[in-house]
Inverse folding.
C-alpha cells in the first residue's frame, strides 16, 4: 500500500484547482446552453402559441347590446320605445349573506314578496357573478336613498339599462305583443353571439314576428383586462347596429276608440284598408298591459290574468274562431250567382220554416215567430238576412261549391299576416268532418252551413280580410301590419302590398247585387242594421250583421238572450266596408255574448271618417 | 503623450483602484447589471418610481457593503469565520425557535431596527468555513475530510430548509458543494455523493412541505392546476414565449403590466425581461451575467492561497447557480424555488449578500499583490 500523501503540495493543489475551475467553466457553459435552448424553444419555436395565449389572457370581447328598433303607428305615434331605467341589482357572489341583505334592503325600499321570488327565480338562470335585479324602475328618490346607504350593502349596485316600454300600454298589445327576458328554450334557437348582450326577445305579436329586424346586431368592445378581470382600457370598439324602426299600418287613435267601444264587452275587431290589405286596427278586448311582461311578470299578476273569466290574454282578433253567423251569407250569395244556381230575380217564399224532402227536421228562420219574410229575392235575403233563402240556396248549391267560395276568400287557412299567433279557422267539408268528427256529412250540415252555423269557423281577421276583398270586387291582399321599415342608415323601405289570388266572379254585376244588398242592410229601413248600425251622413257603408248561437243547455234553448246567463247569449258579428263606391276601410267585429257588434263597428267607422275629414 | 506616459497613467490608475481594493472590471460589469436591472424593474413595477428609488437605495447600500467587504483582507475573514459561522448557526436555531412560537415560515430575525435573515449569512459563511477547514488539509480531500466537511454543512442546510426556505437551503448546499468540487474532491467520491443525494430524494420528498411538493409536481405538469400551483409557471412561460425574438418592447409587456404574471418584480422578473426584450435580450442578459462569472473565475484562478481560491471560486459558482436556478425556474426547467435573480429582482437581503460576496472577490483580488510583496 502506497504511503498516503499527507503533506500539502501547493503546486499540485494549484494545478488541481485550475483543472477544477476549467471543469466548472465547462459545466457552466453546458448549463447555460441548456437554458438558452429552453429560451429558444419558448421564444422562437413556440412563440406563436404563447402569443395567442398572451392575447387570450389580456383581451376580452365585451358585447354591447344593440338598441332595439322603435315601433311607430302609421302616423308616427310611438308605440314601443326604450327608456332608461334604474334597477337595484345584486351580485350574489359578492354578497356575504344574501337573505340578510335582501331583508335589510326591504326595510329601505318597498320590495314585495313577488319581487323576491322573482329574484330567486332569475338568480338560478344567471351565473353567480352576474348581477340579478331585485327591484326595477327605481325612482330618483330611491336611487339617492340607496347611495346614502351604499356602504351597508357590498355586492349591491344600481344599474342603468334600457327598458322596453309601450307608451300606449293595453291599446297596442294586440298588435305589438311584448318582449320579455330570454328563456332557456329561446336560448337554444337564437344566435347566441348576437344575443350575448341582450336581455330581451320578442315573445309575441310584432315584437316576435319582426324580432330579427328589431333586434339589430350586437357590438363589441375589445377590451384589455387585467388578471382580476377588470377592464384596463378599451382597445377597439365595434359599435352595435341598432335594430330597424318599424312603422305599422295601424292607427293608434282608431285602436284606442275601438277599445273604448268594446268597453264592458268581449270580442275582437280588425279593420283593413281594402286597397292594400294594410291593417288599420286590430283589437282584442279585454286586453292587458304589455309593460307587465317586459321584466318578467310576477306570478300573482300572471295568475290573475290567466285565470280571469274574460280571458284578457286571449288574442281574439287572430286566435278567436267564431261561427260566421249570417256574415257568411254575402259570400254564398255571390257563389250562388257565380255558379248560376240562382239569379238575382229568383225568389224563395219564406214562411219561417224550411224542411228537406224526406227529413223530419225543421229549420227555422230567425224571424219565424213573425211569420217569415214572405217572397224574398237574393237582395232582400241579404238585406233582411233571410235564413230560409239561404237554406234553399245551400241545398241547391251543395257544400263543395260553398266551401270553394269561402276558400277563395281566404277562410280556412292562415292569412299570413305578420304576427305568428293566428290560427286558420275551419272551412268544413265531408272529408273534414270524417277526419275530425268521425262521422259522415249529413244533408242538414249543408243546410245550417248556409246561414253560418255548424262547423264553419272564422277569425275576425279572416272576416275583415274577406270583407275587404268583397269591397274590392275580388281583388285580394294579404293582411299586413307593417307599413315601412326605417333602417339604421336612414333608408326607408316601404312594405308593398302583397296581392293574393283574386276571387274570380264571371259576371261583374254579381258583385253589384251583393254589395247593393249589403248597402241596404244599413240604409234600407228593412235592413237588419238599419237600427243597430244606424244612419250617418258622413259616409256610405255596406255591411252585414250576424248572430251566432253559442252552445246552450237544451233547457234554455227557447229562452230569449235576455233571460239566460251572459255566457249562453248569442255572439253578434258585423262586417262592413265604407264608403260603398270607393272603400277605404273594411272591418269585422265580433262581440261575444252580446249584440254590440254593429254599434262597435259604427263607432270605429265614425272615428275613421271623422279623422279622415279632419285631415 | 508618449507611450510610456500612457502606460504610467494606466498603472497609476490600476494601482489607484488597487489601493481602494476595487476590481474595476468586476465593478463595471456589476454596475451595468444594476443599470439593466433597474431598467427591467421600472417596467416590471409598473413604472413605480417609489419602488425604483427604494431599489436604488438598496443597491447603494449593497455597493457600500461590497466596498467594505473589499477592504477586509482575506486573512481577516480567515481569522473570524469560525466565530461568524457558529454565531450564524445559533441564529438559525433562534429563528427556528421563534418560528415555532410564531406561525408558518419564519426567516426574519428582528434585531431592533435591522431585520435580516440569518440564512443569508450562511450563503457566505458556509463556503467560507469549508474553505477555512480545507485550507491546510491535503487536497484532494480524503473521505474523512469529506465527512467532516459535510457534517459542518449539514446543520445550516437543514435549519434553513426547515424554515422552510428551500431555495436558500439549496444555495447554501450548492455553495458548500462547489468548495468541495473546487478542492479537488475525487470523482469517485463525487459519484458516491451524487448517488447518495439521488438515493435520499424519496426521503427528502417525504420531508417536503405540501406546497413544495406541489411545486415539483407543477414543474412536470403545470396544466394540472392552471389556476392554482401551475399558475405561476404557466403565466411565466406565456410571458417569455410571447416575447419572441426581439420582445414586445420596454414597458409594453402585457403579462406583467396586466398582473397576469405573479411576483413580476421579484422572483419572476426574468419573465418580464424575456417578454419585453425577447430572446435577444435574454441572451444578452445571460451573457452579462456570464461575464461576471468569468471575471469571478479569473479572480479565483489568480488567487494565491487555498482559502482565497476556494472562497472566490465558490462565491462565483454560487452566483452562477443563483441566476441559473432562477432563470430555469422562471422558464420552467426547474421547480419553483424562492431564488431571486441576483441584482435584478426587487428586494434587499439577498442582494446585500451577493454584493458582500463580490466584495470578498475584490478583496481576494486586490490584496493579492500585497501578500506577494
Amino acid at each position: 500500500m502506497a504511503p498516503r500523501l499527507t503533506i500539502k503540495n501547493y503546486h499540485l493543489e494549484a494545478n488541481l484547482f485550475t483543472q477544477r475551475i476549467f471543469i466548472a467553466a465547462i459545466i457552466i457553459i453546458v448549463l447555460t446552453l441548456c437554458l438558452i435552448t429552453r429560451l429558444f424553444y419558448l421564444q422562437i419555436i413556440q412563440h406563436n402559441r404563447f402569443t395567442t395565449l398572451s392575447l387570450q389572457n389580456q383581451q376580452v370581447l365585451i358585447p354591447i347590446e344593440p338598441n332595439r328598433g322603435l315601433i311607430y303607428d302609421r302616423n308616427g305615434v310611438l308605440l314601443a320605445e326604450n327608456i332608461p331605467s334604474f334597477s337595484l341589482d345584486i351580485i350574489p357572489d359578492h354578497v356575504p349573506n344574501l337573505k340578510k341583505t335582501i331583508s335589510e334592503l326591504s326595510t329601505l325600499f318597498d320590495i314585495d314578496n313577488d319581487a323576491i321570488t322573482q329574484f330567486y327565480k332569475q338568480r338560478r338562470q344567471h351565473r353567480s357573478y352576474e348581477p340579478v335585479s331585485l327591484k326595477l324602475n327605481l325612482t330618483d328618490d330611491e336611487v339617492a336613498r340607496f347611495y346614502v346607504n351604499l356602504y351597508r350593502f357590498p355586492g349591491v349596485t344600481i344599474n342603468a339599462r334600457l327598458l322596453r316600454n309601450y307608451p300606449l300600454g293595453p291599446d297596442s298589445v294586440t298588435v305589438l305583443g311584448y318582449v320579455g327576458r330570454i328563456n332557456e328554450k329561446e336560448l337554444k334557437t337564437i344566435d347566441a353571439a348576437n344575443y350575448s348582450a341582450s336581455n330581451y326577445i320578442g315573445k309575441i305579436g310584432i315584437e316576435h314576428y319582426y324580432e330579427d329586424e328589431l333586434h339589430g346586431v350586437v357590438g363589441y368592445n375589445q377590451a384589455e383586462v387585467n388578471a382580476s378581470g377588470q377592464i384596463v382600457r378599451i382597445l377597439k370598439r365595434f359599435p352595435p347596429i341598432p335594430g330597424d324602426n318599424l312603422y305599422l299600418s295601424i292607427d293608434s287613435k282608431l285602436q284606442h276608440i275601438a277599445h273604448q267601444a268594446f268597453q264592458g264587452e268581449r270580442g275582437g275587431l280588425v279593420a283593413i284598408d281594402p286597397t292594400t290589405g294594410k291593417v288599420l286596427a286590430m283589437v282584442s278586448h279585454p286586453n292587458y298591459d304589455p309593460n307587465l311582461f317586459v321584466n318578467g311578470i310576477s306570478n300573482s299578476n300572471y295568475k290573475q290574468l290567466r285565470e280571469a273569466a274574460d280571458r284578457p290574454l286571449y288574442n281574439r282578433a287572430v286566435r278567436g274562431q267564431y261561427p260566421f253567423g249570417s256574415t257568411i251569407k254575402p259570400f254564398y250569395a255571390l257563389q250562388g250567382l257565380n255558379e248560376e244556381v240562382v239569379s238575382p230575380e229568383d225568389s224563395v217564399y219564406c214562411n219561417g220554416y224550411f224542411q228537406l224532402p224526406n227529413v223530419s227536421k225543421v229549420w227555422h228562420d230567425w224571424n219565424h215567430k213573425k211569420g217569415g219574410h214572405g217572397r224574398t229575392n237574393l237582395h232582400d235575403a241579404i238585406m233582411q238576412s233571410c235564413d230560409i233563402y239561404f237554406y234553399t240556396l245551400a241545398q241547391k248549391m251543395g257544400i263543395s261549391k260553398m266551401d270553394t267560395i269561402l276558400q277563395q276568400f281566404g277562410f280556412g287557412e292562415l292569412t299570413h299576416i305578420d304576427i305568428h299567433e293566428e290560427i286558420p279557422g275551419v272551412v268544413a267539408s265531408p272529408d273534414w268532418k270524417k277526419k275530425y268528427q268521425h262521422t259522415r256529412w249529413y244533408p242538414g250540415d249543408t243546410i245550417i252551413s248556409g246561414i253560418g252555423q255548424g262547423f264553419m269557423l272564422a277569425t275576425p281577421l279572416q272576416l275583415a280580410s274577406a270583407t275587404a276583398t268583397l269591397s274590392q270586387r275580388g281583388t285580394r291582399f294579404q293582411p299586413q301590419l307593417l307599413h315601412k321599415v326605417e333602417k339604421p342608415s336612414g333608408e326607408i323601405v316601404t312594405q308593398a302590398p302583397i296581392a293574393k289570388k283574386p276571387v274570380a266572379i264571371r259576371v261583374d254585376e254579381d258583385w253589384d247585387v251583393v254589395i247593393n244588398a249589403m248597402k241596404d242592410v244599413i240604409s234600407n229601413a228593412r235592413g237588419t242594421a238599419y237600427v243597430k248600425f244606424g244612419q250617418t251622413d258622413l259616409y256610405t257603408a255596406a255591411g252585414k250583421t250576424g248572430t251566432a248561437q253559442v252552445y246552450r243547455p237544451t233547457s234554455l234553448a227557447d229562452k230569449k238572450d235576455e233571460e239566460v246567463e251572459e255566457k249562453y247569449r248569442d255572439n253578434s258579428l258585423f262586417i262592413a266596408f265604407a264608403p260603398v263606391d270607393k272603400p277605404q276601410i273594411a272591418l269585422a267585429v265580433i262581440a261575444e255574448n252580446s249584440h254590440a257588434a254593429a254599434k262597435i263597428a259604427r263607432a270605429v267607422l265614425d272615428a275613421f271618417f271623422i279623422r279622415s275629414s279632419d285631415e | 503623450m508618449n507611450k510610456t506616459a500612457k502606460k504610467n497613467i494606466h498603472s497609476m490608475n490600476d494601482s489607484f483602484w488597487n489601493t481602494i481594493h476595487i476590481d474595476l472590471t468586476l465593478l463595471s460589469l456589476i454596475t451595468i447589471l444594476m443599470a439593466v436591472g433597474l431598467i427591467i424593474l421600472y417596467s416590471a413595477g409598473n413604472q413605480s418610481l417609489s419602488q425604483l428609488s427604494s431599489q436604488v437605495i438598496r443597491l447603494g447600500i449593497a455597493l457600500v457593503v461590497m466596498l467594505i467587504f473589499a477592504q477586509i483582507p482575506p486573512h481577516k475573514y480567515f481569522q473570524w469565520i469560525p466565530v461568524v459561522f457558529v454565531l450564524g448557526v445559533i441564529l438559525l436555531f433562534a429563528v427556528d425557535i421563534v418560528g415555532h412560537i410564531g406561525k408558518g415560515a419564519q426567516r426574519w430575525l428582528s434585531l431592533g431596527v435591522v431585520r435580516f435573515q440569518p440564512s443569508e449569512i450562511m450563503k457566505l459563511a458556509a463556503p467560507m468555513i469549508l474553505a477555512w477547514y480545507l485550507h491546510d488539509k491535503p487536497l484532494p480531500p480524503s473521505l474523512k475530510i469529506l465527512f467532516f466537511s459535510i457534517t459542518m454543512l449539514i446543520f445550516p442546510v437543514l435549519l434553513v430548509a426547515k424554515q422552510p426556505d428551500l431555495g436558500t437551503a439549496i444555495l447554501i448546499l450548492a455553495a458548500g458543494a462547489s468548495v468541495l468540487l473546487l478542492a479537488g474532491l475525487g470523482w469517485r467520491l463525487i459519484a458516491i455523493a451524487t448517488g447518495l443525494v439521488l438515493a435520499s430524494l424519496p426521503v427528502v420528498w417525504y420531508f417536503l412541505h405540501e406546497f413544495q411538493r406541489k411545486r415539483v409536481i407543477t414543474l412536470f405538469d403545470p396544466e394540472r392546476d392552471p389556476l392554482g400551483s401551475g399558475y405561476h409557471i404557466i403565466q411565466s412561460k406565456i410571458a417569455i414565449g410571447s416575447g419572441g425574438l426581439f420582445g414586445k418592447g420596454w414597458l409594453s409587456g402585457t403579462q406583467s403590466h396586466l398582473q397576469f404574471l405573479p411576483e413580476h418584480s421579484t422572483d419572476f422578473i426574468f419573465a418580464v425581461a424575456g417578454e419585453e426584450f425577447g430572446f435577444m435580450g435574454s441572451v444578452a442578459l445571460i451573457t452579462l451575467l456570464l461575464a461576471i462569472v468569468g471575471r469571478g473565475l479569473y479572480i479565483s484562478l489568480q488567487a494565491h492561497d487555498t482559502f482565497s481560491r476556494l472562497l472566490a471560486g465558490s462565491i462565483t459558482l454560487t452566483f452562477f447557480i443563483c441566476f441559473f436556478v432562477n432563470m430555469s425556474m422562471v422558464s420552467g426547467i426547474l421547480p419553483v424555488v424562492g431564488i431571486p435573480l441576483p441584482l435584478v429582482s426587487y428586494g434587499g437581503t439577498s442582494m446585500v449578500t451577493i454584493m458582500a460576496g463580490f466584495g470578498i472577490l475584490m478583496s481576494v483580488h486586490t490584496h493579492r499583490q500585497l501578500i506577494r510583496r
